[in-house]
Design a protein that fits this description.
The chain is an all-alpha fold and about 160 residues long. The protein has helices at about 5-10, 15-30, 35-40, 45-60, 75-90, 100-110, 120-125, 145-150. Helix content is about 55%, strand content about 0%. It starts with a helix and ends in an 8-residue tail after the last helix.
């Protein structure tokens, strides 16, 4: 990769780690020693050695931060979709009431035989695109026309 591309990447990339790596390679290409690069960037010489050897072997693509692997989800994609559909069906239910984390926790336990802590249920709901206020249903006697008429009633604070 040429210096211009590395320089642009070092200036524009959002990851500070990636910027440091690009700067280290730029200094290496300019002929600076790895020790001097480490002192200049205030990182260990071992890190600079690792970055330079990675760059020489695999190119700049080896620098891109990969998402660290974590524990796989206990719920499959299909099960997550089923939970999303359940929450949406309760949200649009005409019977009134509302759905909370304990309800979703019980649903997961009953249907999938998986136990989640309540904080993880809320994290899962956030991942599925919900917030704690999105699952509130509408009152069965709610009238949009009555609400609009109410908004038209003059208030003594209105100008």
């Amino acid at each position: 990769m040429d210096k211009l591309t590395l320089s642009n990447l070092a200036k524009t990339h959002t990851s500070v780690r990636m910027r440091l790596r690009c700067l280290a390679i730029l200094h290496f290409q300019d002929g600076h020693s790895r020790t001097d690069i480490a002192k200049f960037l205030k990182v260990s010489r071992t890190s600079v050695n690792k970055w330079v050897s990675q760059y020489l072997q695999f190119g700049i693509d080896s620098f891109i931060d990969k998402k660290p692997p974590g524990r796989p989800s206990k719920l499959s994609i299909a099960q997550q979709q089923q939970i999303r559909d359940y929450v949406k069906s309760k949200e649009n239910n005409d019977q009134g009431g509302r759905l909370n984390g304990q309800d979703v926790q019980a649903y997961i336990q009953k249907n999938f035989d998986i136990t989640f802590h309540i904080s993880h249920v809320y994290r899962l709901l956030h991942k599925l695109g919900f917030s704690w206020i999105t699952s509130r249903s509408k009152h069965p006697k709610q009238s949009v026309e009555a609400q609009e008429e109410f908004k038209k009633i003059p208030n003594k604070n209105d100008p």
